[in-house]
TrEMBL record:
Gene3D superfamilies: DD-peptidase/beta-lactamase superfamily (3.40.710.10). GO terms for molecular function: hydrolase activity. This is CubicO group peptidase (Beta-lactamase class C family). The keyword DNA repair does not apply. Residues 16-401 form the Beta-lactamase-related domain.
Length: 406
C-alpha cells in the first residue's frame, strides 16, 4: 500500500483523504499535490513511484512533466513584457515580427497568438523532436505558413504550435528563450524549468501509460488527445456528454488527419515519448515544463498575490476573450490571454467557475489560481489517464481544496 507523505494543514484534511483514496483505488503510480491559501502552503503531499521500471520512490523534490500546464508559464512571460510596454497586445504582430505577415496573416495580433485564434493549430509538415529544439527555426516555419482560418475569426486549441507563437513574443522582446526568461524573471526560487538541465532530468518522474491506445501508440505520446477526451467525459456535471459529440470526438481521435491529431502529435517527441531527454532539455514552450507540485502552485501563488504581474494586468489576462466550441478539440473551451477559464476543457468546482484560471495538461496534470478564493493549486501525476475511463483525479482534489477554504 502506498504511503502518502508530506504536510497537510488540518483544515485541508479532505485533500489528503482524496489523494490517499486515489492511490488506494489504483488511480496513481506516483503523484504530488500542493495548495497555497494566500502565502501559506497548506498542502504539500507526494507518494508512490517516480519510475515504474526501477521502482524509484517519489521524493519531495521530484519534478514531473507538466505537459500543457507549461502554456500558462509562457503566457505569464509574454504578459510581463506587455506590461512593461514593449509591445501592444492588440497591435499587429508584424510591428515586431514582419515575416509573420506572409500568406494572409498580416492582420494577426499578439492577442490572437495568446488566445488560440492565429489559425496555425498544427505544422504543415512533420517536425522531429530534434528540430523542435530550435525555437527560431520553428517560429520561422510558422511565420511562412498559410493559416487554416482567418486569424481572429474563431479559436481552436494550438496544442503545440502555441509555444513557438507566444514564445516568439518573449524571444523578440527580451532576446531570451521562454525558459531563460522565466528563470531570470520569476522562477529563480522555484523548482520549475522550461528546458531542464540533465541533473534535473535524471531525478524527474518518468511518465507511464495507464494502457495502450489504438494503433499501439503509447498514451504518453498522444496524451493531449487523451486529455481532450477525458475533459469531455468530465464536463459540467461531471456526466457523459451527448453521444453525438462523443462520436465526433472518437472520430477525430482516430483520424490521423483531424485537427486534433495534427495539433497534438506534431512535433512528435520521439523515442520514449515525453520522457525523451531531447524534449526535456529543449523546453518546448507549449509542453516542456518540469516542475514540482509546490513550485507550480507557487507560480500561481505569485500570480494571485501580484508578484509576477500587476493585479490589473492579471485581471485583464484572465478576462475571457474566446469561449464556445473549439475548432480543434470540438468541445467548448474558454481562454483569457493564454490562461484557460472554466469550461469543458478546464473543469472546475462550482465555487471557482467565476474566478479560477490556469491550465490543464495531458494525462491529468493541472495548475490553477483563484484570486477571489486566494487559492493556488497544482497536481502532477506520472501515470497518464485511461482515456476510456475518464480522469477525475484532479477534479476530486480541487473540489476538496475549494471545500476546505469555503
Amino acid at each position: 500500500m502506498t504511503t502518502v507523505q508530506g504536510h497537510c494543514d488540518p483544515a485541508f484534511a479532505r485533500v489528503r483523504e482524496v489523494f490517499e483514496e486515489n492511490f488506494a483505488e489504483g488511480r496513481e503510480l506516483g503523484a504530488a499535490v500542493a495548495v497555497y491559501a494566500g502565502d501559506r502552503k497548506v498542502v504539500d503531499l507526494w507518494g508512490g513511484v517516480a519510475d515504474r521500471r526501477t521502482g524509484r520512490e517519489w521524493l519531495p523534490d521530484t519534478p514531473c512533466f507538466g505537459f500543457s500546464c507549461t502554456k500558462a508559464v509562457t503566457a505569464a512571460a509574454a504578459l510581463l513584457l506587455a506590461e512593461r510596454g514593449l509591445y501592444e497586445l492588440d497591435g499587429p504582430v508584424t510591428d515586431w515580427w514582419p515575416e509573420f505577415g506572409a500568406a494572409g496573416k498580416e492582420g494577426t495580433t499578439a492577442e490572437h497568438l495568446l488566445t488560440h485564434q492565429a489559425g496555425l493549430p498544427a505544422f504543415a509538415r512533420p517536425v522531429s523532436a530534434e528540430e523542435a529544439a530550435d525555437p527560431v527555426a520553428l517560429a520561422d516555419e510558422l511565420a511562412a505558413q498559410e493559416p487554416e482560418w482567418t486569424p481572429g475569426e474563431t479559436h481552436g486549441y494550438h496544442a503545440l504550435t502555441y509555444g513557438w507563437l507566444a514564445g516568439e513574443i518573449v524571444r523578440r522582446h527580451s532576446g531570451r528563450t521562454v525558459g531563460a526568461f522565466v528563470r531570470d524573471e520569476f522562477a529563480a526560487g522555484l523548482d520549475l524549468w522550461v528546458g531542464a538541465p540533465d541533473d534535473v532530468i535524471d531525478r524527474a518522474a518518468k511518465l507511464s501509460a495507464a494502457r495502450r491506445v489504438q494503433g499501439g501508440a503509447d498514451s504518453t505520446e498522444t496524451a493531449d488527445s487523451a486529455k481532450t477526451a477525458d475533459s469531455a467525459r468530465t464536463a459540467d456535471s461531471p456526466r457523459v456528454l451527448a453521444s453525438d459529440l462523443l462520436n465526433r470526438l472518437v472520430a477525430a481521435y482516430t483520424d490521423p488527419q483531424s485537427t486534433m491529431n495534427r495539433s497534438t502529435g506534431n512535433p512528435h517527441p520521439g523515442k520514449g515519448g515525453y520522457n525523451n531527454p531531447v524534449v526535456l532539455r529543449a523546453g518546448w514552450p507549449s509542453a516542456g515544463m518540469l516542475a514540482t507540485a509546490p513550485a507550480l502552485a507557487g507560480f500561481y501563488r505569485d500570480l494571485v498575490t501580484g508578484r509576477i504581474l500587476r493585479p490589473e494586468t492579471l485581471r485583464e489576462a484572465i478576462r475571457p476573450r474566446v469561449a464556445g466550441p473549439d475548432r480543434t478539440m470540438l468541445i467548448d473551451s474558454s481562454f483569457g490571454l493564454g490562461f484557460m477559464r472554466p469550461a469543458q476543457t478546464f473543469f472546475t468546482p462550482k465555487a471557482g467557475r467565476d474566478s479560477a484560471f490556469g491550465h490543464t495538461g495531458a494525462g491529468g496534470s493541472i495548475g490553477l489560481g483563484d484570486p477571489d478564493a486566494g487559492l493556488a493549486f497544482a497536481y502532477l501525476p506520472n501515470m497518464m489517464s485511461d482515456m476510456a475511463a475518464g480522469d477525475l483525479r484532479a477534479y476530486r482534489l480541487l473540489d476538496a481544496a475549494y471545500a476546505s477554504v469555503s
